[in-house]
Write the C-alpha cells for this entry.
Amino acid sequence: MDFLPVFHNVKGKLCLVVGGGEVGKRKAEVLLEAGAKVRVVAPEIDPELAKQPGVENVMARFEAKYLEGVTLIIAATNDRSVNKVVSELAQARSIPVNVVDDPELCSFIMPAILDRSPLMVAFSSGGTSPVLTRMMRGKLETIIPQNYSRLAAFAERFRELVKTRVTNPAKRRIFWESALDGVIAEKVLTGDEASAETMLHKLLDSEDNIEHGEVYLVGAGPGDPDLLTFRALRLMQKADVVVYDNLVSKPIVEMTRRDAERIFVGKKRNDHTLQQEEINELLVSLAKEGKRVVRLKGGDPFIFGRGGEEIETLAAEGIPFQVVPGITAASGVASYAGIPLTHRDHAQSCVFVTGHLKDGTMNLDWEQLARPKQTVVVYMGLHGLGTLCSELIKHGMPDATPIALVQQGTTPNQRVITGTLATLPAIAEREKPQAPTLIIVGGVVTLREKLAWFHPHP
Ligand code: SAH
C-alpha cells in the first residue's frame, strides 16, 4: 500500500489553494463542498470563484505568511517553481499538501470520488493512471445508484431505534443486512420512504428480523446485453432465482448471479413449456419461500409481455414487486437496423401491433393501420406476414410500400430482409428468417440504406 486512505474533516477549517485559474477553482469547489473555508492566493482569481461564499480572496503572489492557520494546502499554479516552494514550506510545517498533477511534490493525493453523500467512495491508482481511475469510477457509477444517498440517510434515521430494539449486535447486523439489501432498500431507492418505514417497523416486530421474498419483473431488452438498464443489472445480480424464457438472450442470462438458481419457462409457438398461469404461480411460490426472484422478460415487460398479468397475481398475494422497463424490440431493432420509427418526411406517428394469428386470422383495425405517414411495427408477425401484406393493400396502402423484416435484432445474428408489401412474403418464404422477427412497414424503411450502422459478424 503506497498511501494511507483517510477521510479528512475540514468543516469550518481554513484550507489554502494557491492558484486562481480553472484548476484552482475546481479544487476550491471540492473543499467548499466539504465545508472548508478557502483562502485563494493568486495574482488573478477566476471571478466566479472569487464571489463564492466561504472564499477569502488574496490577490497577490504566494508568500510563506499565507500558510498561517491553514489545515490543508492545494497548489494549482501553472508555475512549477511556485508549486515547489509551496510544497517545501508546507512539508516543513507538516501541513498536508497536494500539488495538482505532480505526485513528487505531494504529501497527499486526491482520490477520484463517487459522491453519494453521506456515502462516499474514494479511489486512486496512486497517480499511475488517471484514465484507469476514471474508468473504474464509470463502472462503480453503474452499480451504485444515484439515490444511494437516500438509503444511507434512511439507515442513519433509524439507527438508534434499531439499536434499542435489536440489542444483540450479531442479530442487529443481520437485521441491517436484510433491510438494506431487500424490499425496504428498494422502496427507499424508488422514492417510497413511507412504505419503507412501515416495512422497517414490521421487520422490527417480526420474530426473526429477516425479510421475505420479492419479485423483480425486469425488461431485458431485445438481445444485446449492452442495452440493459443499470437497474436491471443491479437486480439481476441480487436475485436468488432467475426465471426466464427464450426471448432473453443467453449472454443476458449469464449476467445474473453465478450461484443463482435458473428456471427456464420458455414459451415458443405451440410449445408452451409452462402455461402463463403456472408462471404466475411459480413466481408467487418462490417469493413465499423467501427468495428474491428476477423474472426476466424480453424487451419491455409491459409491451406484449403479459407483464401485467404476472404482477396482478403478485399484487393479489401481497408480494412486493417492482417492474423495470426495458428497451422494447421496436426501438432496439429499429436503431440497429437504421430505421428511424418517425421521420419528418415519412411518418408522424408509429403504432405497435401484435400480428399473432388467432384461428388463422389477425384481428386488427386495418383501416387505421393503412393510413399514410405512419410507421407500423408488428410484433409476432412472421407467420401472418402474407395476411398482413394483403390486408394492408386491400385497405388502401400502396403495394409498393417498403417493408422490412428483422430477424434477431441487436444480436450477432441480426438479419434484415426488405421488400415491398407486394414482394416481401415471397422473399421471406425463400430466405427463411429465424425467430424472433419484427416487421416494420412504412416509408422510413427506405432510410436504412443511408443510416444502417450495425453490421453483425456472426
Ligand atoms: N416484450 C417484448 C415483446 C414480446 S412479444 C418487447 O417489448 O420487445 C415477442 C415478439 O417481440 C417477437 O415475436 C418479435 O416480434 C419481437 N422481438 C423481440 N425481440 C426481438 C428481436 N431481438 N428481434 C426481432 N424481434 C424481436
About this structure: The first strand starts at residue 14 and ends at 18. The chain has four domains: 14-110, 148-205, 214-327, 330-451.
